[in-house]
Amino acid sequence: MATYAHKKQQLYLVLSGIFLVNALLAEIIGVKIFSVEKSFGLTGSLSAGVLVWPVVFIGTDIINEYFGRKGVLRITFLTVGLILYAFLVILGTTKLAPADFWLDLNKTDPQGRPFNIEFAYQSIFRQGLGIIIGSLTAFVVGQVLDASVFQLFRRITGSKYIWLRATGSTLISQLVDSFVVLYVAFYLFGNWSMAQVLEVARFNYWYKFAAAVVLTPVLYLAHYAIDRYLGPAETAELQEEAFVDKSV
């Protein structure tokens, strides 16, 4: 039978893995800005990265609930390091000279039009320094703010009102995150106007706002599953540790 320490370790490992993969995925695909109107019939534009970002919201809140602020910050900074590593590896591959046969095999698209696959590869994967700085800055600021606000609500509500501390912390932190990433990446280092930054950031935020509210039942379901996995006594002990950690 698994011990309490083993269950705790396994739980943190699984939650951290889900958090890390989705955060890395959001950073990689976030370079694409797509038309919501053309894709879903709604007016506005979104960064593709926000599509998986709600999973990061839930992961942050659950880790915060059971492992406290230190647990959130530990996986946050580990994720930042791994994202930087991933971008360095990707950047390195863009410096490699393409093989002639690869270029020749991919010189036309399925419709027979001229196609430069090396240019496409470079355009997709060789993101500018500004995008990397902007996304990581927003990620760290958003996570620290989320963890801190979550703790504040936890001290006020105790173990009650999970939806309040989870949704409230997400809405506040993502208000900052949504604007910081676009401002740094596309205004300071890019060629966007402030009007474009505000328009896309505003729509990004409202999407995250809606996702945080809609996914509240998922948060409760995750809590239920974790409580059953840990057991009543062990769950209470673990949550008490998290609460003490948040109060520091």
Describe the structure.
Involved in the import of queuosine (Q) precursors, required for Q precursor salvage. Keywords: Cell membrane, Membrane, Transmembrane, Transmembrane helix, Transport. The chain crosses the membrane at residues 12-34, 40-60, 72-93, 129-150, 162-186, 206-226. It is a multi-pass membrane protein. With 248 residues, this protein is an all-alpha fold. The protein contains 10 helices and 2 strands; from the N terminus they run H-E-H-E-H-H-H-H-H-H-H-H. It has helices spanning 4-29, 36-40, 53-94, 100-105, 117-125, 129-157, 162-188, 194-214, 216-230, 232-247, and strands at 33-35, 45-47. Strands 1-2 form a two-stranded antiparallel sheet. The longest helix has 42 residues, at 53-94. The protein is globular and about 65 Å long. The mean pLDDT is 82.
Rg from alpha-carbon coordinates: 21 Å
- Ranges where pLDDT stays below 50 over 5 or more residues in a row are none
Tally of DSSP β-strands: 2
Distance between the termini: 33 Å
**Could you report the average pLDDT, rounded to the nearest whole number?**
82
Largest sheet: 2 strands, antiparallel
Q: Helical segment tally?
A: 10
Shape type: globular
Hey, roughly how much beta strand do the residues contain? under 5%
Residues in helices, as a percent range: over 70%
Widest sheet: strand ordering = 1-2
Structural class: mainly alpha
Order of helices and strands: HEHEHHHHHHHH
Function: Involved in the import of queuosine (Q) precursors, required for Q precursor salvage.
Main location: membrane
Protein name: Probable queuosine precursor transporter
Transmembrane segments: 12-34, 40-60, 72-93, 129-150, 162-186, 206-226
